[in-house]
């Protein structure tokens, strides 16, 4: 009796995906914006304070997206705003603080 050699199946692995895993549940675009150094410092301090208080990690992009969505979800009509300074003042008043 002649035994046949068992064939081994070669399973192809999917190519490794490079970079961070996708974490967004909706379509997105990468954009570049200019922020002032003081804003970056404040965002970094805020992220550090959030991590220290809650133990959760929130990065700059997540904080910025949350602030934008919060403004959009508020229903505040900003269509008549004529400048960045005016928008900042209106948002600050709405949130109950004075602007710069």
Tell me what the structure shows.
This protein is mainly alpha-helical and 100 residues long. The protein has a domain of 43 residues. The chain contains three helices and no strands. The longest helix has 18 residues.
Tags for this model:
100 residues, elongated
Any idea what the radius of gyration is?
25 Å
Note the gap between the termini.
93 Å
Task: Describe the global form.
Answer: elongated
Which spans have pLDDT < 50 for at least 5 consecutive residues? none
Number of strands: 0
Helix content: 40-55%
The structural class is mainly alpha
Beta-strand residue fraction: under 5%
What are the secondary-structure elements, in order, as H or E? HHH
Mean pLDDT: 87
Largest sheet data: none
> How many alpha or pi helices?
3
Strand-helix topology:
Layout: H1 37-54, H2 60-74, H3 84-95
Short description:
This protein has a domain at 35-77. 45% of the residues lie in helices and 0% in strands.
């Amino acid at each position: 009796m002649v035994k046949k050699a068992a064939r081994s199946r070669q399973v192809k692995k999917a190519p490794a995906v490079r970079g961070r895993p996708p974490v967004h549940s909706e379509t997105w675009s990468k954009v570049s914006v200019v922020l002032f150094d003081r804003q970056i410092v404040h965002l970094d301090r805020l992220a550090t304070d959030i991590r220290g208080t809650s133990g959760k990690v929130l990065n700059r992009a997540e904080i910025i997206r949350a602030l934008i969505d919060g403004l959009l979800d508020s229903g505040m009509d900003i269509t008549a705003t004529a400048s960045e300074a005016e928008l900042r003042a209106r948002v600050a008043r709405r949130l109950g603080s004075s602007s710069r």
